[in-house]
Amino acid sequence: MSSEIEKVKVLIIGSGPAGYTAAIYASRAGLNPLLFTGAQPGGQLTITTDVENYPGYPEGIMGPEMMEDFRKQAERFGTQVKYGMVTKVDFSSKPHKVIVDDQKEIHADTIIISTGASAKWLGIESEERLNGKGVSACAVCDGFFFRGQDVAIVGAGDTACEEASYLANICNKVYMLVRKDEMRASQIMQNRVLKNPKIEVMWNTETEEILGQDEVEGVRVFNNKSGEKREIKISGFFVAIGHEPNTSIFKDSITMDENGYILTKPGSTKTNIEGVFACGDAQDHVYRQAVTAAGTGCMAALDAERYLAAQE
User: Fold this and answer.
1) How far, CA to CA in Å, does 259 sit from each of 254, 294, 295?
2) At 71, which helix (H) or strand (E)?
3) Identified catalytic residue from 50, 69, 138, 298
4) What is the pLDDT of residue 46?
5) Is 141 a catalytic residue?
6) Is 142 a catalytic residue?
């Protein structure tokens, strides 16, 4: 490990809308933040094609381009953006200590965690190949592109039911693929789906392959009880089997819920550790939108600024 230790007032871990917004606010406040991008600079939006629901882009914008804009804006006000992965943290004493790429040590007066979350996928080749070309893990983000068309959604929890209902409002037909003969979702959500004439629930059904070369044209499914296969014509394929917050390196340092989302004090971004704040999808499992992530990024920077002012 390098012997040289870098000292900063504000360290931001992660680079999605939350991290970059926190950086814009912290740098404008004269706090000279240092931001490490993590393994996926720009976060989940970099694997999203068209973003049409972020205010201020009337024509829509490509996800990677939007994150590039966020980064440039943060850098313009003096944020130091570095490529690197935080591999270890020590919040047991002040200043807080962080190791980057197993070698560089940073001491920070405040830390803003914006490591985001990653969608869980089925793990089949066609899903990866057609990701962003009709395959999506966010119906609220991408459902609009399939207005009046037939789509399929995989999942059996509350989120899957909610997204199926959302899609049914704008699509012609929604096939809901459920692996077992029952759902995990709450009764009220199940009832909503089962009563909706535009949603066809296919029980004991698993995905074998998503069909299409350059865009989704259909899906081949099989019944795991009878073994019977079937091909369905669709143009959109949504995966709603959950998300996983990218928070494992903090698990011994910070209070989280049972799924690994960092718990923050209501109405703030404060964690159980003084001077450590969390924003974006690392702590939000409800909304998970770019605009809400950016909002909590702003909150985290303001919380950090107030914390630093109180320490002086």
Assistant:
1) 13, 22, 23
2) helix 63-76
3) 138
4) 74
5) yes
6) yes
Q: Which of 142, 150, 281, 284 is catalytic?
A: 142
Q: Which of 109, 141, 171, 281 is catalytic?
A: 141
Nearest 5°: CA angle at 35, between 31 and 40? 160
Residue that terminates a domain, selected from 219, 239, 259: 239
pTM, 2 dp: 0.83
The model's pLDDT over 17-29, given as tens digits with 9 standing for 90+, comes to: 999 999 999 999 9
Count of domains forming the chain: 2
Q: Tell whether 136 and 108 lie within a shared domain.
A: no
Strand ranges in the chain using DSSP code E only, listed in sequence order: 5-13, 34-36, 50-51, 61-62, 80-82, 86-90, 96-100, 104-113, 117-119, 135-136, 150-154, 173-177, 199-202, 205-211, 218-223, 229-233, 236-239, 243-245, 276-278
Place of tokens 């999808």: 281
The domain spanning residue 184 has which CATH number? 3.50.50.60
pLDDT per residue over 90-149, tens digit each?
Answer: 999 999 999 999 999 999 999 999 999 998 999 999 999 999 999 999 898 899 999 999
Domain limits for position 193? 121-239
pLDDT in tens, 269-304: 999 999 999 999 999 998 889 999 999 999 999 999
The two tokens of residue 92 are: 């047991």
Q: How many CB atoms lie within 10 A of CB 253?
A: 18
* 15, 160: one domain: no
In this prediction, residue 38 carries a pLDDT of 87
